[in-house]
Amino acid sequence: MLAVSIHLAAAIRGYLAFYMPTNRVIDWLRSPRGLKWAIPVAIVAAPAYLFSMSVCSTVVERGGPGYLNLLVLLFAWNALKFASVVLLAPLRGLRLAIAHRARRAVDHQRWRGDGAVYQPRWLPAVVGGSAVDRERLPGRVRFHGDRDGDR
């Protein structure tokens, strides 16, 4: 029963992520390409949704149709999503910058220019490769701590 509910929740999330426009915008703002636009877009969108929410709730209070309460909930939820983007965008940017610097440091360490490729033993696990990737590197491969006759 738990597996069925997990699969159902994943299917609903996939449907909503693909067809609902705010989910598509949020996914784009969380991507590395959309990260620079995350804060400006979210700063504009969150108050706009809050204003729309207050307008709908005012209409409902003055005798408007009750189904506008669903719009109030939808606008509140979207405002919270965009507010979370404002709060988390700097952390995502920092994480991407740290990962980029680490990747550049590893690349600089691997290629020293003397024809040999220096690669730490932990690199395949960190970068996502395997021991097979060691064989694909061009030239002679030396691992830190290895002596010339070890491999």
Please give the structural blueprint.
Blueprint: H1 2-19, H2 21-30, H3 35-61, H4 68-110, E1 116-119, H5 123-127, H6 131-136, E2 140-143
Parallel strand pairs: 1-2
Transmembrane segments: 38-60, 66-91
Protein name: Sulfate permease
Keywords: Membrane, Transmembrane, Transmembrane helix
Task: Please provide a written account of the structure.
The protein has 151 residues and is mainly alpha-helical. The chain has a domain at 2-92. Helix content is 72%, strand content 5%. It is built from six helices and two strands. It has helices at residues 2-19, 21-30, 35-61, 68-110, 123-127, 131-136; strands spanning 116-119, 140-143. Strands 1-2 form a two-stranded parallel sheet. Helix 1 (2-19) packs across helix 2, helix 2 (21-30) packs parallel to helix 4 (68-110) and helix 3 (35-61) packs antiparallel against helix 4. The radius of gyration is 25 Å and the shape is flat. The protein starts with a helix and ends in an 8-residue tail after the last strand. Residues 124-130 have low confidence and may be disordered. Keywords: Membrane, Transmembrane, Transmembrane helix. It comes from Nocardioides taihuensis.
Summarize the structure.
This is Sulfate permease. A two-stranded parallel sheet has the order 1-2.
Strand line-up in the sheet with most strands: 1-2
If you compute it from the alpha carbons, what radius of gyration comes out, rounded to the nearest whole angstrom?
25 Å
Shape: flat
Structural class: mainly alpha
Mean pLDDT: 79
First and last CA, distance: 52 Å
Oligomer: single chain
Report the strand count. 2
Largest sheet: 2 strands, parallel
Beta content: 5-15%
Unreliable parts: 124-130
Instruction: Classify the helix fraction into a percent range.
Output: over 70%
Helix tally equals 6
N-to-C series of helices and strands: HHHHEHHE
